[in-house]
Write a structure and sequence with these properties.
With 139 residues, the protein is of the alpha/beta class. 30% of the residues lie in helices and 14% in strands. It has a single domain, classed as Rossmann fold (3-Layer(aba) Sandwich), CATH 3.40.50.
């Protein structure tokens, strides 16, 4: 299965470990942003052109069968929100969405979105997902 992992850029190193685990289980992780060399705490600069990065991320989502987003406590200061745009894009593309962590906004309360408290809960739950033959979400 092709899986896209979405999270705050500062969680990049943690998600790299999750990506390794998924690969050991025989899945492909389509999130090329995890291979970027920029430090996880890098801040965006108004002079930089991030359009190419954004398009690459959308291409990676298009190649995925499952979209997994890592949310944090919504009461914490969230500086950027690209992962939410990506989640909306995945939803519009009818790609099944998994939320790990709390609901950061009302859209993660949709019935078609599956939620887990932690990575361990998600990776251990093989009954919820047909990991071999994923299907696009119905309209």
């Amino acid at each position: 299965m092709n899986i896209y992992l979405a999270a705050s850029f500062k969680l990049k190193d943690e998600l790299r470990e999750y990506a390794k685990e998924l690969r050991r289980l025989g899945h492909e992780v389509t999130s090329r942003w995890l291979r970027e060399r920029a430090h996880p705490k890098t801040q965006m600069k108004p002079t930089d052109d991030y359009g190419e990065h954004a398009l690459r991320d959308l291409e990676d989502i298009d190649r995925s069968d499952l979209f997994v987003i890592f949310n944090v406590d919504p009461r914490k200061n969230i500086k950027r929100g690209g992962k939410h745009f990506e989640a909306g894009y995945a939803y519009a593309s009818r790609i099944p969405i998994i939320v790990i962590g709390p609901n950061e906004n009302i859209f993660y309360c949709l019935r078609t979105i599956t939620k887990y408290k932690s990575w361990e809960d998600f990776i251990g739950d093989r009954s919820e997902w047909n990991w071999e033959e994923p299907a696009r979400r119905e309209a």
